[in-house]
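Exam revision sheet. Question 4 asks you to relate a sequence to its structure. Input first:
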Amino acid sequence: MSQTNRRTLLAAAGVALASPVMAAPARARYRVTLQSVSPPRFAVRAELPAADGTLRMFDSWPAELPAMETRGWPALVFGLRAADATGAPVGLTETARGWTLDRPAGGRLVLDYEVDLSIFEAAGWSSPLESAVAEDGVLAVHARALFIASGPDGPAEVRFVLPPGWRAATPWPARGPASTADLQDNFLAFTNRAPVAAAASGFSVELVPMGRWRAIARSLGDDMERIVRFQTGLMRWRRPERYLVLLTPVSDRGGESYRQSLAFQNPDPRPETAGDWANTLAHELFHYWNYGKLKGADYASTQWFQEGFTEYVANLTLLSGGVTPPGVFLDRLGRHFDNAAKLTTTLENIGTHKGPPLYSAGALVALYWDATIRQAGTGDIGTFFRNLMTVTGGGARPYAWPDIRRALEATAAHDWEGFYRRRIRGTDPLRPADVLAVAGLTISDGRVAPDAAAPDAARAVWRSMAGSG
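Answer key, structure tokens:
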């Protein structure tokens, strides 16, 4: 593509090009050119503040590839050249996580480099939830591969130069990302197809379906809209936001969430299997709040809350949001009881190991709390989450148990401290009867069902959750 055509394309998209003579930047500025889809290659020009004399890429090592294991994201960068404010070259020395400048650059640094993702393509798109994946008409790439940053997190601008008919699907509005951290902790997609849109309360989601996902694009959009509507309602969220969902063509199972995006794969995405894949979509989306906005002060001792409560909200989203029938929720509760019985530690003492037992045990705690709050008539699990946002200053301060307790006490009267000491910190886990009794449910032969003999207050909890009263 000629430079004239590139400028025409950008002007048509309402994107201004930086002047060839650049003043010292108050923010990082990037121009990203998609040179080739197969093999996937980009050319990047970056104008960066250079006050501390270092350059960095995100500190992670995706995929099981030797080059990535030893060098991380810098392994994808080729032909890196740096110049100072006068245009004079600046030497660079590669370090374990980036580069250092061989001399001061006068506060401004201009970089030119190429990013080659062909090692992922050659490996059959190894680790697509963390790196890159492509098929005809779509190239999705983790932004960590594209952006070199300098110094601490700061404001950023990005301009894309793409082939005619292609567009960038990004988790930020046209004005660009807020910061270099937004850049480095999100997925991006470049496509010549129209993404699937879903939105509610100003929270706009673009879904980029690949592979088998394309066959269910219509129902996928409808289900995602229900998920977004329920979760923004639960959080009373009215802040405009853009979010990107990448649905990979890989026939495997799993999801990974980032600041304003998620990548997901499932071996059998059909409307009939929505109870499986839609739950994962709802789980990963709720991490926007319970991970992105609310963060635990200590990783290990708060994963029961981050993952378990996110899993419960996902289950509740499908039930109360009308995505799947009540039987799907009840069957999943039965699996939670089975998984939780395999937990061999207390909820706070899992170390770095996560898995179904922890997720399910945490989800059952969330159900108990939700049902207890509903019986008190003071709200539901969403009321508690909103109070936790308030307690932590909108998520500005990481939470620990005292913050969770304060949010609970502001939501409903209960012996929350005693519950914590027994069920979470202690070795007395919740049993099925403990949980089901407050939710108007019962279990027989491993199957959970509404309990017609339960007290009126408990049956009212189940009706409110199921949307029938």
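Marking note for examiners. Residues 440 and 455 are 7 Å apart (CA to CA).
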